[in-house]
Design brief:
This protein is mostly helical and 184 residues long. Helices cover 72% and strands 3% of the residues. It has one domain (19-181): Orthogonal Bundle (Arp2/3 complex 21 kDa subunit ARPC3), CATH 1.10.1760.20. It has helices at residues 19-35, 50-60, 63-81, 86-106, 112-138, 142-169, 172-181; strands spanning 40-42, 45-47. A hairpin with a 2-residue loop joins strand 1 and strand 2 (45-47). The N and C termini lie far apart (41 Å).
Length: 184
């Protein structure tokens, strides 16, 4: 029984993120896990295409959503299929996605192309540097990191080219915003 002079001990929590936002993040995380579960065979390992979805999500979502998709999604993909570098993936792809999202939405507001181009290039540098340092640490040899460096650069370039193309050509940013706002 509620008395008139009682104060509600659990006030409603106001949040910018809603269930639709969480669902979009979950869907993109699943796509990240799927794209990180298989790779194109290259000398010394595999070339993974999950940077495409990481960059796409980072250009569409806010930094928190980008971290969920990029960092947590890559972490889960590694956890399920190849757990050794999963923490490297969490930090590297998480920072990459957050940096891209923040820069694309807040830098060079007058010139969207320049903002997106600088954001994805900074993200590519973060990814290549993070994975090179992470591989040198995880595998205890910088030589392995040097062997994989060209393929890390190629993976980053896939994301740099395909991510913005998907967002602009398919107008994914507008469609996802409408989905999150409930206008579809």
């Amino acid at each position: 029984m509620i008395h008139e002079n009682c104060i509600d001990p659990l006030p409603a929590v106001q949040s910018r993120h809603n269930t639709r936002w969480l669902t979009i993040c979950g869907l993109m995380m699943a796509m990240n896990v799927a794209l990180s579960s298989f790779g194109l065979p290259v000398p010394g390992g595999h070339l993974y295409l999950n940077d495409i979805i990481i960059v796409t999500a980072a250009l569409i979502l806010d930094p928190a959503g980008a971290f969920l998709v990029g960092g947590v999604g890559a972490f889960l993909g590694d956890f399920f299929f190849y757990p050794l570098p999963m923490f490297v993936s969490l930090v590297t792809h998480g920072l990459q996605a957050m940096a891209i999202s923040y820069m694309a939405h807040h830098c060079f507001k007058g010139n969207r192309f320049l903002g997106v181009a600088s954001a994805v290039l900074v993200g590519a540098v973060i990814m290549v540097t993070g994975y090179s340092l992470g591989r040198a640490y995880v595998y205890s040899t910088p030589a392995y990191a040097w062997i994989k460096l060209p393929y890390e650069i190629l993976q980053a370039l896939f994301g740099v080219i395909c991510g913005p193309f998907l967002v602009w050509k398919l107008k994914l940013d507008e469609k996802v915003k409408k989905l999150i706002d409930g206008k579809y």
